[in-house]
């Protein structure tokens, strides 16, 4: 019997926490809005996320971002290789800074 009261007390504390944080009101409002929809959405979870203001990356956006990331990584690699090549070519015409300082 004591175990039942302890878990009930924890539940009540958690319920008060959710109420104080405004979670219960927000969820209730969203669920009421979903209930009042004349044409129920195909994806209730998306409806809830949208009405709660959850911003997430859509699948199309994620794919577009992956492609852009891949393109930029390739461009970065090309620029790094070009930079290394130019540094090597520059060393043919100018001594490294350490040697130039030692000569003076």
Which key features would you list for this structure?
mainly alpha, single chain, transcription coactivator activity, elongated, 0% strand
Q: In this structure, how is the largest beta sheet organized?
A: none
| Low-pLDDT segments | none
Structural class: mainly alpha
Overall number of structural domains: 2
Could you give the distance between the termini? 91 Å
Note the overall shape.
elongated
Which band does the percent of strand residues land in?
under 5%
What does this structure look like?
One of its GO terms (biological process) is positive regulation of smoothened signaling pathway. Keywords: Nucleus. It is found in: Nucleus. One of its GO terms (cellular component) is nucleus. With 104 residues, the protein is mainly α. The chain is 82% helix and 0% strand. The protein has helices spanning 2-21, 23-36, 44-52, 59-93, 97-103. It starts with a helix and ends with a helix. The longest helix is centred in the C-terminal third of the chain and has 35 residues, at 59-93. It has 5 helices and no strands. The protein is elongated and about 80 Å long. It folds into 2 domains: 1-56, no CATH class; 57-104.
């Amino acid at each position: 019997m004591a175990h039942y009261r302890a878990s009930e007390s924890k539940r009540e504390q958690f319920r008060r926490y959710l109420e104080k944080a405004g979670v219960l009101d927000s969820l209730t409002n969203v669920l009421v809005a979903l209930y009042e929809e004349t044409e129920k959405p195909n994806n209730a979870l998306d409806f809830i996320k949208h009405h709660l203001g959850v911003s997430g990356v859509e699948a199309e956006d994620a794919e577009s971002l992956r492609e852009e990331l891949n393109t930029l990584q390739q461009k970065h690699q090309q620029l790094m290789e070009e930079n290394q090549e130019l540094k090597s070519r520059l060393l043919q015409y100018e001594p490294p800074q350490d040697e130039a300082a030692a000569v003076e």
